[in-house]
Write a structure and sequence with these properties.
The protein has 160 residues and is an alpha/beta fold. 31% of the residues lie in helices and 27% in strands.
Length: 160
């Protein structure tokens, strides 16, 4: 069995910029940079990859050219405690050309998909009362950015 699993994110040439953004939003840190050497398909000395850490998980951002853009088939899901954290991560990931999608999903300016989820969502969707869970689900399906207070109100049957 592997001792580590590291998501490997293929960027055109923005690995360093992306790692800096992600670590600034999620209080992460850059662990190391690797540079292209002689005879590589990219300029010698330019960034090949950046290893960074977010919430204890390690990620590798690779500059590999435009041949393999991200798709919505892969996303990074971030569960946060408060609505302020939802709002902050959401706004910062959209800066500079990102686009909101639906149901807490967005696509950042590099094309990487994210899910910004308040912890209340999982609790409400798995509520032992199926009617309560259903009302929360129906409310979530109408949202772009998740609003935890509106989810709770919907689950409680309070019209907004």
């Amino acid at each position: 069995m592997p001792t580590t699993i590291t998501p490997f994110l293929w960027f055109d040439d923005q690995a360093e910029e992306a790692a800096a953004l992600y670590t600034s939003i999620f209080n992460g840190r850059i662990l190391r940079e690797h540079r292209w050497g002689p005879g590589a398909p990219f300029p010698q000395g330019s960034i090949m990859s950046v290893t960074f850490e977010l919430a204890g998980g390690t990620y590798e951002a690779f500059n590999g050219g435009p041949d393999h853009p991200f798709t919505d088939a892969f996303s990074i899901s971030v569960t946060v405690d408060t609505q302020d954290e939802v709002d902050d991560a959401w706004d910062r990931l959209l800066e500079g050309g990102g686009r909101p999608v639906a149901c807490g999903w967005l696509c950042d300016k590099f094309g990487l998909s994210w899910q910004i989820v308040p912890k209340d969502l999982g609790e409400l969707l798995s509520d032992p009362d199926p009617e309560r869970a259903s009302r929360a689900m129906q409310a979530m399906l109408q949202m772009v950015k998740i609003d935890a207070a509106a989810l709770r109100a919907a689950a409680d049957g309070v019209a907004s």
